[in-house]
User: What shape does this take?
Amino acid sequence: MTTPLIDERTHVATMTPPPWATIVWNDEVNLMSYVTHVFMKYFGYPRLKAEELMLQVHHQGRATVSWGEREQMERDVTAMQSYGLWASLERT
Amino acid sequence: MPAFSRRDSTLQTLFDSDELTVLGMLVGELIELLSPLCPHTSDEIFTEPPPFWRQDPALNRLFPDAYADDEAASAEFSRYTMADQTLAKTDAANLVLTDLGAAEDGLVSVPPDHIEAWLITLTNLRLVLAERMGIDNIAEANSMDHPTAAVYTWCGLILDSMVQLL
Assistant: This one.
């Protein structure tokens, strides 16, 4: 059994940029601790990366939290919205 | 200050009777807010969401546009996801009600498989309360001498105390 070296969602293997991205927007309601938890729980990101993304949302107003095909990004946006985060998808 | 603590895999906290009543009432109101959007049959999953939700800022915040600058694509997205999302939010809120209802002498126990439901429901409550109050920033909410603001802040403290234990 072989283990893929590269997550196919990163699209690194094909050298083509992923066409869509999931954006999480800053809002004044969601707690920083909770946003970090959601990024860890749903995307499986390590705490450091999740906190980095959370801080980017907080300070820059938005952060790209995932890349991929449109269908996958719609699933990610749905998940973020189900957690109460303000998310949308857009072309990269 | 209300705070959860961990007992094995369960999260527990002690609420006084006012806290139990208020939280139960708010969660009930959340379910009521969502109920007109709940599909009654599985066929309704793919029907148009009732148009009134667009007029309610709280519902707009619970179901934001998926495409920031494409109204048609956002509408299409809502059409396909909103029924499921409404059901999921309602199910989560009902799990919270179940745990509140099972409280003994104010001791609320949240089993591991209910924790996400609590986090999601407390977040949904805070989003709705913030929209209802027209809160522009959290500092403002904390300084406002208003019962809704107090409840909003209280829900945030409970939520944060749960997240810190995960």
About this structure: The mean pLDDT of chain B is 88. The longest strand of chain B covers residues 10-14. Chain B touches chain A through 32 residues (CB under 8 Å). Helices of chain B lie at 17-34, 57-62, 71-101, 115-133, 138-143, 147-163.
